[in-house]
Amino acid sequence: MNNKLLIDLYKRQANIIFAYLIKCGCNNEEAEDIVQDGFIKAIEYMSGISDNNISSWLFTVCMNNFKNRVKRRKTLNKIIVNWYELFLKNLHDNSILDEIIFSEKKEDIKECLNLLKEEYKSLLIFKYELNLSYKEISLLLGISEDIIKTYLYRARNKFKEIWRKKYE
């Protein structure tokens, strides 16, 4: 791997990994540290990493670092999902009732997401919270786009099933 590839990778991936770590419960400083540590490892192991696998390798290194930190501290902030924030921001009438409904829906979504398998939860966050394309998710995880589409289909169906059982 050359320096230009590393710089391109940083421009493409750093914000995505940072945003995902925030959604997983990291604070800003911790997420910055994890991303920085990941890129330091990428620099250290430049010669041993295939150019084709660098995105998924970097994501895996960062996620392993995050999981190790969580194990050390034994607590994990719950995922913060802001799916309904855009809806709320676009409302012209921000009455107290609207805010209460928004808050309740947000909590309901968090509860359902936390009942999903980790892979499904991650994919839903990548696709709908971070607005990544199938191709971007594929590159990030090192999995083919077809498999990403299949897993996302299953994740959406499982989310719907959990939602219906809890709220309908």
Automatic annotation (TrEMBL):
| CDD domains to which the protein is assigned, alphabetical | Sigma70_r4 (cd06171)
- Entry keyword annotation includes Iron: no
Q: Which GO terms describe its molecular function?
A: DNA binding; sigma factor activity
Gene3D superfamilies reported for this sequence: 1.10.1740.10, Winged helix-like DNA-binding domain superfamily/Winged helix DNA-binding domain
Ranges where the RNA polymerase sigma factor 70 region 4 type domain occurs: 107-158
From which domain of life does this come? Bacteria
Q: Which GO terms describe its biological process?
A: DNA-templated transcription initiation
What keywords does the record list, in alphabetical order? DNA-binding, Sigma factor, Transcription, Transcription regulation
Q: In what residue span(s) does the RNA polymerase sigma-70 region domain sit?
A: 9-74
* Entry-linked InterPro entries: RNA_pol_sigma-70-like, RNA_pol_sigma-70_dom, RNA_pol_sigma70_r2, RNA_pol_sigma70_r4_t2, RNA_pol_sigma_r2, RNA_pol_sigma_r3/r4-like, WH-like_DNA-bd_sf
Q: Does the keyword Phosphoprotein apply?
A: no
Which Pfam family, any one of them, does this sequence belong to? Sigma70_r2
The record's comment on protein family reads:
Belongs to the sigma-70 factor family. ECF subfamily.
Q: What's the protein name?
A: RNA polymerase sigma factor
**Can you name the source organism?**
Clostridium novyi B str. ATCC 27606
Organism ancestry: Bacteria, Bacillati, Bacillota, Clostridia, Eubacteriales
